[in-house]
Amino acid sequence: MKDWFKTGRPWIWLTAGAVSVSLIAVLGLLALIAWRGLSFFWPAEIHEIQVQASDGSTKTVIGELYDTEEVPMERLAESGIVLENYSEETLERWLLKVGNREYVPLDFMWIMEPQIVADAKPLDVAKIERSKNGNFYGYITDVLEQGESVFNSSPEQSELREELAQRIERVLDINDQAEDLQNSEIGAINYRLNQLRLERRALALKEQLTDSEEQRIAAEEAQLRADYKVLEEELFAMREEASRDSIVVRDMRGMDVTIPMYRVLDVTFPNDMGAIAKVGYFFSQIGNFVSENPREANTEGGVFPAIFGTVFMVLLMSVIVTPFGVVAAIYLHEYAGKNPVTRLIRIAVINLAGVPSIVYGVFGLGFFVYMVGGSLDQIFYPEALPSPTFGTPGVMWSAITLAILTLPVVIVSTEEGLSRIPSSLREGSLALGATKAETLWRIIIPMASPAIMTGLILAVARAAGEVAPLMLVGVVKSAPMLPVDGNFPYFHLDRKFMHLGFHIYDVGFQSPNVEAARPLVYATSFLLVTVIVGLNLTAISVRNHLREKYRSLEH
Amino acid sequence: MAVQSPTALGASSKRLVKDRLARWGVTTGGVAVLVALLLIFFYLLYVVEPIFRGVELEQQRQFSVPGTGQTVALGMEEQSEIGYRFSDTGELTYFALLPKPHMQAQTGQVLLQQQLTEVKPTAFTQTQPQNNRFAYALPGGKVQLVEAKFKTRFENGQRFTEPRINLVNDGELIQVDPAEQDLVQLAYEYDGDAMLFAAVTDSGRIIVNAFTASRNFLTGQVSLKSKFSELELSGPVKALSVTPDLRQVLVLQPSRLAIFDVSRSGVVTERQVLALDKRRFAEVTSMQLLAGASSIMLGHADGRITQWFEVTTDEGRRYRYIRDFQTAPKAAANAVIDIVPEYFRRTFYSISAQGELGVFHTTSEADLYFAKTAGVSAERAVVDPRANTLLVESGDQLHVFSLDNEHPEVTWSGLWQEVWYEGYPEPQYVWQSTSGSDDFEPKFSLVPISFGTIKAAAYAMLFAVPIGLAAAIYTAYFMSAPVRKIVKPTVEIMEALPTVILGFLAGLWLAPIAETHLPGIIATILLVPAAIILFALISSKLPKQVRNYLSDGRAALVLIPLVVLVGYFAFSMSPLVEQWLFDGNVRQYLTNELGITFDQRNSLVVGIAMGFAVIPTIFSIAEDAVFSVPKHLSNGSLALGATPWQTLSRVVLLTASPGIFSAVMMGLGRAVGETMIVLMATGNTPIMDWNIFEGMRTLSANIAVEMPESEVGSSHYRILFLAAFVLFVFTFAFNTLAELVRQRLRDKYSSM
């Protein structure tokens, strides 16, 4: 035994164990996020559970099984829960999502396993997704139009579901139209009105507000207000139309509850779905998740604005970082002398990649937002003061801050690519009479382009996952408007934006109902991880491909 | 090889111009980018620098004192455009501090003047500066109250400020002494309609009178209800003071300071008598309450100013001596004749008998300024509410000084040493930057948050270094190329995982698990290595084919199920262990039996989560270092008969040690600066304790939490920048060290 320890074998095994632990950590983490994130979209079965309380009374609970947990009895006893006729040391308890937020104190409920008398999954129980107050679970008993039942006698299930599907489609249609109207046309009028207000202010500041100008602005405003009236009436008519129908649902208390149809987004019967229907539902849920706006303080609905904000900011950042990073790398590698100073600069650049991202955020806030942005406001937007235009965090400052943050990544990667190009190629080109600029432009940069791509991809991957600096320079939990819309000048770089990473932080830690929002956070995490891991894998494969390519050149 | 110049090769001049342009363009672009990166350093420095600046006083204007009699009080309005002066004859005079064209007034010209009393007052007092009221005692124990007010109006975007005189209580006199004796000393404060007076009559009685007002619902008339008491105190009184909360009366006598409590209904009881020992404290020459009214400042004849405030002791809250400030050199016997507090900050100004003006800050124990500015011998001074102008009386002249004292509360010692804050039982390291009230004493000690940073990094490194380095060594030295090609990128991909996701999992997934399955986590940490060694022992007894199969790095893959199984076992038996050893609740056991505080989001969780964020950094660099040790070294060692382990530990690791060092440094740099994980996985409370079950607040998380709500240009804002600067310099230094070591190593290898 002692000899065996002396050979060092156990230590080698321990190091192997460290590799296993690292691998388990990586793969386990990815699997955990994927599993939790994807299961969010899978239709959960709805349980109808009879619970017997300690006083003998039973009640019905309808909801999705959310989590199960093994708890020591003593901990329950400490929190004042006593179960008679139960002597095990631990017991299982179920966390049910019971929804129906306006009728129950909490939309999540713990149930002790021994208290369960009966557990069924009835086919007719419906899950009603609503635009307000979250899900509702119950049995649909009737469909109303103007408060009157649309059926003459008590309806069959199939009949009911068909009727329901038609009417929901109609309401969704109307809601869509109303939302369109509100966002595009009414939004445009509001935007224009604000522009006119600023125009008047600007003219007044320059003391050029003549009577004719004033009249022109006033006339346009009057016209816009008139348009607004018309659109508003149209909108009200649509809302009126949408509120025609409602559904009657019997909830777990056995009471009939009327839910207005315009609040309903979808009605599903998860216990009555076949495998194919479930798969279909799964994909449609994913589709909704990436394409819809968030609802109810981000805890429900989709993450479209966050995806859009992330992508837009990262694109903007790429546009800024690529030319600067590449030029700096070319300077360092091709033009700067090979001396200790260059070496020092190179080390400094590499080290900047290791500076905490929050430091960049602080720099961005102080320098870009307050100093540069504040000056821009003074010069170009005096009419909007004291409310700042660029002197406040926004998507442009975020992009520039992240561009500086990722600059070292691009420089290092590009330089690596440049140094891999055999110098015989440069010398050959120069020997054939090309100038240095021509050699660079025609030979070196095209050959280094995969390295530049790698650098850019890594930069994008880093920027997409960075949250801390963005919290200071432009990200918000809920942006009313996207940074790109149909109003001139179309790109609004001064606007704040939503970001997937910040969405995770915000919904996971700042939302009022963390329990309800958690699956959504997992889903968002999964989305972000997929994008980032995908980008990194691409970068790695590009780099490997590149290495192979130049290995052949060297020989 | 000499390259022929392009001209010799017949290049056209257009191409040469292009070449030169490109060279010029790339060089400027490149240098600009590098300068931009340098800019970060200098910009942070530029924002931080003002907090260490001293006080600057500059004489602006000078004019002769307007009005009659002796000055008893001076004041200024918020914009320092108008000043006012109360005289001992009962006259209030407003005068311009700047030329005011709309009132046709030059500097020093009287804007408004009024005789407030019909007879010569017997005494005068003023409230704390922010309460802005003044009181004249009139013969017969009566008091006249007045408020210096200003009316501001805007016309065409321009601001006009005009003085107003407001006689409190509709100008009616208040009978403070029912015995109608003349008051020779007076102190007064108010809070809404309630008022508190303390006074000394000409017969030497010390009286206290508390007034409460009640409003008649029908007529709207306010009637004052008085609660009068006489203090049983004899001897001369040097100064009197009343706290703005109307709960305390301070009576300064030659060798003692007596403090009396005043109850809500006006009943006066003695609270504490501070004996001012002649040997310790020279004669007291002035007394003043500091902003916030928690501290009493006493000026002494030897030029010392002492600070006293209430501290919780065994006998309840007692005033005690805290610290002192030396105005003039001790031997100079330059008495402190006046102390002037600021409106909101803990800065105060002192006037010495020889006319020097001093500026001090209590919290930071800073002696900011002490001199006769511009040769002006000061007799009386007052500061404006925004603390950027000083009005100084000297002889028959008034001097206006501009005052630049933006960040008195920050000093290097205040940031890094223990400070005795008002109301604290002893000097402490505290970070508490904001509070609800204006006159809150901000507590800017970077020690707790720096400690938090080190604590978080230390626990993360404790977790990451063994795993990261061991994994790197195995991957680089024992693994066959095909397996390594898969394993290395897999571990490295974790470096790219957004830390917000790690933080989220740590806070919402790991923290609850760690709370409910604490024994499971501890057991996993202990059992996994044990199980691996056991497995190794078993495998060494296995037939040779099996052993051969396990070499080439497959061991790591074979161990995966083992580790998972052991982990699963540890967790599933966790509730039972809890039942047997800890009475079913570890958390309660820790708190009650061992006295260890347990937070759900604690250092253990941070250590594990941030450890996983740091492992790939350490792994990647260390693996490179070990892998690039020249093969002939290890082959030589093996050929001479050393076992693989001996070769590894005595040859390979020794050669690669600089690289391993740099890997650890890089990892540390990352752990120190990490924001999101600590933000999400700890409670962010700035406490100083190594307890693994408590949280912390780190520099980076502190910036993320407080930066959005700090006022631009305030001390708080600049200190957050300082925190960022500290982080920047710290990580930059660590990384540079690591990088230099790494480059040297690379050179060494290439020469081997």
TrEMBL record, chain A:
Residue intervals passing through the bilayer: 12-35, 303-332, 344-372, 395-418, 439-461, 520-542
InterPro entries: MetI-like, MetI-like_sf, Phosphate_PstA
Compartment list: Cell inner membrane; Cell membrane
Membrane-topology annotation of the record: Multi-pass membrane protein
Molecular-function GO terms, alphabetical: phosphate transmembrane transporter activity
Keywords from the named record: Cell membrane, Coiled coil, Membrane, Transmembrane, Transmembrane helix, Transport
Coiled coil ranges: 161-241
GO terms of biological process kind: phosphate ion transmembrane transport
Main location: membrane
GO cellular component: plasma membrane
Domain of life of the source: Bacteria
Domain ABC transmembrane type-1: start-end pairs: 307-539
Matches recorded under NCBIfam families: 3a0107s02c
Family, per entry: Belongs to the binding-protein-dependent transport system permease family. CysTW subfamily.
Protein name: Phosphate transport system permease protein PstA
From TrEMBL, chain B:
Gene Ontology CC entries for this record: plasma membrane
UniProt main location, coarse: membrane
Places the protein is found: Cell membrane
Signal peptide positions on this chain: none
A biological-process GO annotation: transmembrane transport
Ranges for domain ABC transmembrane type-1: 450-738
PROSITE patterns: ABC_TM1
Family (UniProt): Belongs to the binding-protein-dependent transport system permease family.
Protein's name according to its UniProt entry: Phosphate ABC transporter permease
Lineage of the species this protein comes from: Bacteria, Pseudomonadati, Pseudomonadota, Gammaproteobacteria, Alteromonadales
